[in-house]
Structure formats: C-alpha cells, structure tokens
C-alpha cells in the first residue's frame, strides 16, 4: 500500500518527474498536442464543460488575462483563470475569482490520475493544463480565461474552443522554438484562432497583420484590431504599456456583449481599477519601496525592456539603479545595449537551473564595456543597492520573471 503524497511530494513529482520549460528551457518544449488530448480524454474532456477565453501574445498576455478576469468577476460571474509561470506558489497558476486552487486539490488530482500520468507521460505543463481544466469543470465556472503558455498553435492549452480569442502582440521571444521572424512567430500565435470563433488583436503590426487576416479568413473568424479604441479607462496596473493591453481587453468585452454576455460599463471600470486586488496579479510594475522608490517588473524581452527603460527615464530621480538577472536563453546583449550609461548596474542570479550564471553575464557586460557590480543572491543585491542609494534615487529590479519571483517582500 502506497501512502498518499503530501503537497510538497506532489510538487516534487510534478516538477521532477517531467521536463519543464520553466526549469530547463527548450528541451521541454513538445511539438504536438497528443499528450494533452489523451490526458483530457481520460478526464472526460473537461475543457468542453465550461466557456472560455483564450489569450496569446509575446507581451501582455498575463496582464490582459488578469484584466479580463477582474472585469468578468465584477460582472458577478464565477471566473476561472489559468496563467503561467507562477511567481511564489504553484497554486497561483489555477484560480477561481482570485482564489488559488487548494493544495489538497492539487494533491488529489495527481493522486487520482497517477496511472494515466504514468502511461501517458505528460510534461509538467500538460499535466498542469489538464488539472486546471478538470478543476474549472468540477467547480462549474461560468467562464475561464486561459493564458497560452508558449506560442499558441502547439501549446497544451490549445484544445479549447473559446468564445473569443485574444492575441495581444507579436515580438521576438522564444525564437529558438517559435521561429526567428515576426511573421513566423505570428503564425504560431495565430494557431489559437478557431473556426467561427472571433479573434481580437490588441496591437496591429503591418508586418504580421496579413498572417492573422489569412488565418482568420481560413477559419471564417471575425477579426478585430483594438488599436483604434480611443480613450482607455484607468487601471490599478501601473506601467504605461498597459494602455495597449486595455484596448485589447475592451474589444474582447465588446465581442462578448455581442454574444449576449451581460457586462455593463460599471463592471468594466470597477474590474480595471481592482485587477491586483481581485485577481492577485503580482510583479507588473509593482512598487516595493517608497524611499528610494523601488519598482520591479517581470518584462524580460526586447520589446518589454524598451517600455520599461522609457518609463523609468520618464520618472524623476537623482540616480537610477538597476538590479538585473537573466535566463540563459535570452539575447542579453540586446537588453544590455538599451541601458543608458548613466545607470548604476548590479547583476544577480536567480536560483532556477535556467538562470544565466553571473560569470556569463559578466563576460557579456565586459565585452560591451559595461561597468557593474555582481552579487549572486537576488535579495542581497537589492539590500546592498538600497543601502547605498539615496532616498531620491530610483531602483528597478527585473530582467527575468525568476528574479522578481525571488524578491522577499513581493
């Protein structure tokens, strides 16, 4: 008789038994949906038992998913939210009305599906998606917002038929898996467009619009671009880049209303003003300290970093400090070249296996004649920089989701 696993053992099983993109990178990326389909068939296809919204994109898909969830919650609906990666706890990936799935539910899912898991051998991500769909079906959510993990076409989440699909934008990220031109990356994201299901594009880019238009035409899907929306309501998510996300979200709300969903304008305004409170979103332009003003953000690719630097430079400060760490599959030189010479830099290293070692960061920085301090541990780096900064300085912490995840007071 096997005694049942506790929560920590269950997590270890999820994380270690199987390849996982978050830990090992490209080696965990599986190029088809067969495992997810097999696992969900075994579970009696839970993905067909609730309504959903599917969200893909290079940047902004997490923020947009949380905004949609907040608006739908403000409309009085029971809303599932599936996102990745998590920052502090695995349970953050699967939520209903802002409340994480319980640890007991995680344990019992793995326990009950052990045989199927051992025969199908799904990846960490495939298992987590099946767990989310099973949970949302059992809890009878009114609608679930499902964020794509990576890409779109071959992402494990892509077995749903949503009410509407949202693609936030297209930029260069994960190129080793999704293709190295914007149209190729766009084709992967466009893989979430389903037959007859409307699709919204938050940010149109002339170079990739034809890709979306072509796929939408093949699928007889109504395609809308959201850039034209005029004034956007406020949100509690700080970061100038959120205005583009809000436009896409508002357009999705329009589509849902056309389908008969009852979402009034007050719910939209209330939802957008309380995103972090009602959904539990962390790490998006989040303030960690007041004097010196300290901000963290999970943005980690070229486009996101451009926004971050522009916004930092628009603030008032005596000296700007950046505490940065990276993962080893990023083109870090691009990010380093964007940092103004006047910035005081400190590099650190998160504890995930995918983290870029400080030695590698140092060699890249020195090759670009960039002066910096190097402090291994994330919180030690923040503490040291804070201690040496004046109260009128500005400190930014980021470079990778995993650096932000390790911040103690997040």
Verbal overview:
The chain is globular. An 8-stranded mixed β-sheet has the order 4-3-2-5-1-6-7-8, with helices on both faces. The mean pLDDT is 92. Helix 1 packs across helix 5, helix 4 (61-74) packs across helix 11 (242-258) and helix 4 (61-74) packs across helix 12 (265-273). 41% of the residues lie in helices and 13% in strands. It is of the alpha/beta class and 410 residues long. A hairpin with a 2-residue loop joins strand 3 and strand 4. The chain has helices spanning 7-16, 21-24, 34-42, 61-74, 103-112, 114-120, 124-138, 175-178, 182-189, 209-218, 242-258, 265-273, 275-279, 302-314, 332-338, 358-367, 378-388, 401-405, and strands at 51-56, 79-82, 94-96, 99-100, 143-147, 164-167, 199-201, 223-225, 286-289, 293-296, 320-324, 344-347, 373-374, 394-398. The protein is built from 18 helices and 14 strands.
